Amino acid sequence: MEFVSGYRDEFLDFAALLFGWFRKFVAERGTVGNSHEGRWRQLEAQIRRLPQDPALWVLHVLPNRSVGISLGQGADPGPGAGLGAARLLGDEPPLHLRDLSPYVSFVSLEDGEEGEEDEEDEEETGEENAGTKKVKPQEGGEPAAPSKESPQKAKLRTKEPEASKKKAGGEDGCGEDRGEAERGAEKRKERRTAEAAPLHLSCLLLVTDEHGTILGIDLLMNGVQGSVGQGSGTETLAPRAYALLCHSMICPMGSGDPRKPRQLTVGDAQLHGELENLVRRLGVKLAKSPMRAWGPRPGFTFASLRARTCHVCHKHSFEVKLTPCPQCSAVLYCGEACLQTDLHRCPDDVSHRFWCPRLAAFMERSGELATLPFTYTKEVTSETFNKEAFLASRGLTRGYWTQLSMLIPGPGTGTPRHPWDNLLLSGDPYQFLQGDGSALMPPVPLDPPRSLFGSWQDYYLWRGLSLDSPMAVLLTYPLTVYYVITHLVPQSFPELNIQNKQSLKIHVVEAGKEFDLVMVFWELLVLLPHVALELQFVGDNLPPESDQQHFTMQRDGPELSVRPGSGVSARLSSGTKEKGGRRDLQIRVSARPYHLLQGPKPDLVIGFNSGFGLKDTWLSSLPRLQSLRVPAFFTESSEYGCVMDDQTMAVATGGGTSSPQPNPFRSPFRLRAADNCMPWYCNAFIFHLIYKPVQGNNGGRPAPGPAPPPPTPPDPTPTPARRRRAEKKAARGARRRR
């Protein structure tokens, strides 16, 4: 069995949800539209019998006149597979948002030429590319610069079935006769070696409730303008909007059973008037006046993934009714057929029959993982947790908080492009941890900790944080490092005497998201004030422009000095040092796989939410760790992930992992799974690597029996002969150096 929950970017799951619902809507809209009037009457009669939703529903009409979307082959020259819909929204969990940058870019349509230049191309790419291009606008940050597309770009234009093309032509008002279609195909062939015109999404119809749950979506390409186009539209939006409303009631995208709203408001004056008589046939009351502008209530957010999927066939909950396995209650299926298919997979160790008792044991940890001291614990650990609404209600919509959700940093939010820009701008490592209200981090306590912290409650009490503060969601990374240093290494590797070391070199391997939050590691200076720390972030997911760069932070700020050089180096210090020496924190970056890293051996290796089986580079990085034989601790978001990591470690090195234990400094936010009900939390469990015993000379096999006792230390007083040999050896070494 394989689950991707806890690893995959939430936005990609969200985009897959939009895309899947939109495809189903297009297919069913075409079926109803080509049927007799009786089919519509049956559908309307079915909607009239639906229960009423007390929440207000909103039909948003969002025109787009100035931005086109260009789908490219990628920045690298030469032939390639491109970024098709299967790669974008398929089953490959390693795909991250940054992977989209080389392929999707925005271009300006202000001149009005691009939107009309290649109308046939846009119509034929139709519904499927519309789902693809929806992804990039949500990526956040600055739009990518327009880039010329390679000749192989034509591969990205998804080849749709003929039936889909007919639906697109019949329903969008873009239908052409066969001759026109053939001429359009010939035109596209001739232009395959030239730069293609950008796609233009002319209008977005969106149905939500007043809380922000998305219930339906329709993407309009050029040719259907209506009142939105302010003039020369050839077709009104009303039929499209009415079909969208009906489908959103019968098959709501978000969550919940089919239902109809008690009241509906529309974001376009002309469309409001045209829909008045239509929605009355459904038993829905239309607001007296249209929504003048898209001005939702405070706290309105587009909620995270709500719809779930069958583990086998991946159908969404808006298509079929999903029920969990009756034995383990962990995995979701659409019916008996998919359950039986999963039970009898081959080989046996990937079947649900093999995993079911293990998953049942994982489910029993749900209550333990949800036992946290925060005032908001019940909300954030529930299966229906709406993360965007939680963050927005607390004003956490800028800075580092945008890394936790689908929120987009807006203009003027001051989010730094690089992590160290924070130091260069203000010298305050916590500037981008704040919300819109008062500061979330209190001043640093004057006295260092008197004891070791083993829980969020103890740490919050000493740090002066209220249990209503959500800072634990960000501080889970430095506090996990602290817990490994102060508790786990002394327990598992007492011979290292790590608590008495005055300096530690730590490698953070296969780093990704935690590097985007790198400034939170400043808290280690507060927790371990007398230890000089060096954190080296290593991984091929790191920004290439950050490679070989470094900066230094000290506990006392905020005087700042910048030293020029090949890399970026910033120092945050007070200019005065206390007696006894407050230590500093060195941050270094190596944008490469860990097995290609060169340099001195670290004291400790740490990885966050590792997912060994989800990235091929682990098959090389784990043997490298085996050769270094340094203490290596990793976190996982579920026990299932820990079991998979143990299997990958055995395959890669012949070693294994320790029994996972719950991390007291795990994130309190529950991660919503798509095809299962297991409890997933960032940094939920911790384990360390158990290396394969050192091989002897007997055919490459490990030496049998217990490890030999340590050798007896030699006599510190060397014999005269030994002294003469040592002197000769030192002399030969000196000559070689000269």
TrEMBL record:
<dbReference type="GO" id="GO:0045892">
    <property type="term" value="P:negative regulation of DNA-templated transcription"/>
</dbReference>
<feature type="compositionally biased region" description="Pro residues">
    <location>
        <begin position="703"/>
        <end position="719"/>
    </location>
</feature>
<feature type="compositionally biased region" description="Basic and acidic residues">
    <location>
        <begin position="157"/>
        <end position="194"/>
    </location>
</feature>
<feature type="compositionally biased region" description="Basic residues">
    <location>
        <begin position="721"/>
        <end position="738"/>
    </location>
</feature>
<feature type="region of interest" description="Disordered">
    <location>
        <begin position="696"/>
        <end position="738"/>
    </location>
</feature>
<dbReference type="Pfam" id="PF20179">
    <property type="entry name" value="MSS51_C"/>
</dbReference>
<dbReference type="GO" id="GO:0001673">
    <property type="term" value="C:male germ cell nucleus"/>
</dbReference>
<feature type="region of interest" description="Disordered">
    <location>
        <begin position="109"/>
        <end position="194"/>
    </location>
</feature>
<dbReference type="InterPro" id="IPR046824">
    <property type="entry name" value="Mss51-like_C"/>
</dbReference>
<feature type="compositionally biased region" description="Acidic residues">
    <location>
        <begin position="110"/>
        <end position="127"/>
    </location>
</feature>
<feature type="region of interest" description="Disordered">
    <location>
        <begin position="546"/>
        <end position="582"/>
    </location>
</feature>
<dbReference type="InterPro" id="IPR042989">
    <property type="entry name" value="ZMY15"/>
</dbReference>
<dbReference type="GO" id="GO:0042826">
    <property type="term" value="F:histone deacetylase binding"/>
</dbReference>
<feature type="domain" description="Mitochondrial splicing suppressor 51-like C-terminal">
    <location>
        <begin position="478"/>
        <end position="671"/>
    </location>
</feature>
<dbReference type="GO" id="GO:0005737">
    <property type="term" value="C:cytoplasm"/>
</dbReference>
<protein>
    <submittedName>
        <fullName>Zinc finger, MYND-type containing 15</fullName>
    </submittedName>
</protein>
<dbReference type="GO" id="GO:0007286">
    <property type="term" value="P:spermatid development"/>
</dbReference>
